[in-house]
Amino acid sequence: MDTEQFTPAQLSFFSIYSPPLGPTDETFGDQVVFYYSRSARDGRTKAKATADEERLSENEKLRQIGLAQGMAGFARNFSDGEPIEAVETEKSRILMHELEKDWWVLASIDLTRLPSSNKDREFEYSSREVSPAPLLLQQVLTAYRVFTLHHGPSLSDMYVKLPRDKFSALLDRFWTRFCRNWDVLLHGNPAIDIFGGLKLAAGGELGYGVGEEDWGSGDREVLEDLVHRTEGLVDLLVHRFGEAAPPEDDYANDDPSQITLHDARQGLPWLGCGNEPQAPDGLIFSGVGAITRSSVRDISTWVRDIYAYGEHAYGVKDNPHRQRRKRRRRIPPPIVSAVEASLDRASASADSRAPNQPQPSSEQTSSWNLGSSDKWVKYLTFGLASGGKRSDSPKRPDGPRPMNALQRQRQRENNGHFLVGYHGDLDRKPAENNDDNDSDTTINDSEIPEAERNTLRTVKVELAEKSESQNDDMDSRDSFVNRDVSSRLRVLVYVHRPFVYVFLFEQRTPSLSITGFYRELHKHLRPLHKSLLNSTSTQKVAQRIAAAHTSPPEPLSINPLNPPYAPPRNSPVFDLVYDPVNLTCHTSLPNIPEPGQVMPYEGSIGTTSSGRDAPPQWTRLEALNVHSHILFTLEHSSRHSNETERTSKTSRHWWVVWLRIPQPGENDGKHPRPEHCRTAFLVRKARDHVVEVQRSRGLGGAKGMASRVSSGMYNLVGARAGGVETEDGNEGKGWGSAAALAGGIGIDARKYVENLLSLNR
């Protein structure tokens, strides 16, 4: 296929506008406060646009805004007044959504262009692997929440407080970056992204109280005590991404031929490599309840960007509130025609005088020039010019070597450092801080100067009311609505692989200007690191569940001639649970592999986020099939509020079970409100497909109980508080009758999910 004819789906244009800003035809252009166009960007990179081209671009922008408003108004007449949010055409997918009152976003996605098999048409367009409209809108809303986290509670508030040019500059700085990096194809974990919730880690949050010491209840007490005892500290969040750092000896390999792809990835830094968070990654400590759950979700989304982009994430290295410097006017280029004419006249006059003047000899010319120049140099330098010449020595390369820079960054990540906050050496003794000459560190005999600076960053969050923060009643969901007055807090980001700590301080805390305070925080968190690794390790969680003897019993077969059904070990159950009240989302469903990604060896189990232990047969096609089916099921269930359960089978032999589970206080016989119900998915490879594959390999049918670890370490029946452990499984108690389990996914889905909800606190 010709690469010039194949064009993947990408953003065409993106706009933010407000109709009240331009109510008349003359002021219609004032509605647009931000506009991004891929064609205009490509044109600016090739050559400077002329005045006519800029005028045509402005007319095209206004035409697109007017057309979108017309389509929205026309479609509202046929949708009972409900606003339309997506329009599908042959070549594009258009999105329209009201971010807040009178502030709209408009985006157009060009579908994938392929060479047409029809001779009448040169190209054809395909929406395959393109994210559906609800997912694209959710990605825009997620970016909007990150924008308001840094700049203010709403666009209306910012527009009133700031001049128009500064307001447009803020929008341009954030949304231009978003448009350039927006991947409109299915990637990562779309089943999680569609909810826009607070992603929890594999083991959920840290445990509570007595009996959950193995789940980190002691670590929770230490973190809560740190918040209460630190002056000015409002709240603290802790996330986990990836695995702990391997020993430094694992990075060294003298034989390049023996370096594998996994070894090469292990040699890269932990942060800023563009890695997508995996299924086991997420939040492990959501704080002490000082801020609302919606603010916790927004900060968690920003932390995910920090994990992917490192210091280049928005609001980390560059101050989002700093105004851009205006470009200075340069000296205008000379007029070419005037310069050429002057040069011609000078050449002609020189040629006319040349025959009348004798030419000096070369020896006289050289002696006169050299003698006069040498004398003047000696006079001006007092005879020191000849002795001050440097020898031609090779120049030292600018900056450290790449390998030394990578090693230095890995060392900082493994030892712990502040990504936002104090950037000096945290392990140096305070007595040595007075000597400015000792501010350099030495790594592999190469001196790298380290700036002793303190970055100041703030975020806008909603403070929760104390009376409602600990209320477990259903009315506590009102505290998650943005009705409290937002407050601007000082934020510090401390990273120690694989954890990211986010500290929220009062803005005028005096200790934040003291260097020793950051060293004390670093000293306080270092002993906690090993304990957190043990309590949140995915392998440890799997071992604890296996030791609890909580595997589902084998149901009796309906047909006595057939042996009882036993799920094979290489057919794990993947789960996804979303709680709209707590805004928490937990999953064991793996991400979509990247194109060309090397798949792991067959027979491994998906228990880690390193990518080496992904489940067997989880190829890109399998992942796209499962995630697309989940997105379709969610869209279908949103239109049928009375439906509570759905079981389906994909075209690639995967069982997908969707459940709508009411909140604990709404099981009173009445029909629960769908917007408050928890949503759950269970995914498993179909039994007939697994048995067929096993027979083709000569393995026969699997016998015995299902592996507890192969189920993604989430068979939490009785493993934590709230679980119910059964011993008489042969009678079908606790997991449903044999008739209910013999077909389909093979387990009682509702009981299975109810025992997973202990992770969603």
TrEMBL record:
InterPro entries: Ccz1 (IPR013176), CCZ1/INTU/HSP4_longin_1 (IPR043987). It comes from the Eukaryota. One of its GO terms (biological process) is vesicle-mediated transport. Residues 11-152 form the CCZ1/INTU/HSP4 first Longin domain. One of its GO terms (cellular component) is Mon1-Ccz1 complex. Residues 344-354 have a biased composition (Low complexity). Residues 389-399 have a biased composition (Basic and acidic residues). Residues 318-369, 386-457, 543-564 are annotated as: Disordered. Residues 355-369 have a biased composition (Polar residues). Residues 322-331 have a biased composition (Basic residues). Belongs to the CCZ1 family. This is CCZ1/INTU/HSP4 first Longin domain-containing protein. It comes from Aureobasidium melanogenum (strain CBS 110374). The lineage of its organism: Eukaryota, Fungi, Dikarya, Ascomycota, Pezizomycotina.
